[in-house]
Structures are given as structure tokens and as C-alpha cells.
Design brief:
This protein is mostly beta strands. It is 14% helix and 40% strand. It contains 3 helices and 10 strands, in the order βββββββββααβα. Strands 1, 2, 3, 4, 5, 6, 7, 8, 9 and 10 form a 10-stranded antiparallel β-sheet that branches.
């Protein structure tokens, strides 16, 4: 494993009121810092899910770990074949290559801080998702950009079963 040294010299300060917000209830994403702002160290966003809303379908990142910190509420997280229920203050870190997904638990809200490290440019990925949600692009268009965003979708019977309940 090689040591990654991020290349940036100024602190990154993002005011909540100035962060770009993608989507609308029941799923909103607040874009906080992209990889280019942190010299590749990380990319981070805050995802708010209302009333059991889905966050992301099962996928993995080949080159980055993903950290989920539950700021408030109750979330379900897929980590490999295990579905974890995480509450306020809980942390789940998924290593590169391991399938994962996230959602608010059934009937619950969840507010989650997500950090991907090393960073991947993610803001345009979330804008792409918004265009799909608003019918401007077909869902299968995500398959064309999997390599660009290091996001590879996978089937997960464990996740499907947990989300059916």
C-alpha cells in the first residue's frame, strides 16, 4: 500500500448556507467538499433521508473507502452481505471493493455525513443523479459513468430482503 499525500495548502471552509443542495425531500444531498478542493484527500457530502427513503443502491468503489457517520436518526447500511442499523453517533467505514448501500430505516429519518477517501470528484455524480430523478436522463446512463466516478453497481439479495421489510 502506498502513502497518499494530499496536495492543498489552504483550509477548506464550507458554510452550510452556501453549500449546493441536490434533490428534494425525501432525499436531499448537501455537497460540502469535492476532491479537487481537498487536493484529493477526500470528498464529502451530507445526505438527509426522510421516512425510510433510499439513499444509494448497492455498489462499491474500487479505490476509495467510504465513511458513514449518522448525525441524527436511524439508517440502514449494507456492508458486504451484512445489513447494519446505525443510530445517531454511530460510524461505519466500508473498505474499497466492498459492496455497500444506505437508506433511512423504515419509518425513520436519517441525516448522514459521508466521506470518501481518497477523494473522487463526486459533485457531478450527484448532479447526474438529480438529472435522472427529474427525468432528464435515463437511469441506465449511470452505467456509462461507473469508471469515471469509481462507482460500480452490484446486486445484493441481503439489501433487497432488508429493504422489503
Amino acid at each position: 500500500m502506498s502513502l497518499f499525500i494530499p496536495q492543498f495548502t489552504e483550509s477548506v471552509v464550507v458554510r452550510s448556507a452556501e453549500a449546493e443542495v441536490i434533490g428534494r425531500a425525501p432525499t436531499t444531498i448537501r455537497l460540502l467538499a469535492d476532491s479537487s478542493a481537498t487536493g484529493g484527500a477526500l470528498s464529502t457530502q451530507r445526505v438527509t433521508l426522510l421516512d425510510g427513503a433510499d439513499g444509494a443502491r448497492p455498489h462499491h468503489h474500487g479505490n476509495s473507502a467510504e465513511l458513514f457517520y449518522v448525525l441524527d436518526g436511524v439508517a440502514q447500511l449494507l456492508s458486504g452481505d451484512q445489513v447494519v442499523t446505525a443510530e445517531r453517533g454511530d460510524l461505519v467505514v466500508v473498505p474499497p471493493g466492498l459492496n455497500h448501500a444506505f437508506a433511512a430505516a423504515s419509518g425513520e429519518d436519517a441525516d448522514i455525513l459521508i466521506v470518501i477517501t481518497p477523494g473522487i470528484e463526486r459533485f457531478e455524480y450527484f448532479r447526474h443523479l438529480e438529472r435522472i430523478a427529474f427525468g432528464k436522463l435515463p437511469p441506465e446512463s449511470l452505467l456509462e459513468v461507473q469508471e469515471l466516478y469509481d462507482t460500480y453497481f452490484r446486486a445484493s439479495p441481503a439489501w433487497d430482503n432488508a429493504r422489503r421489510v
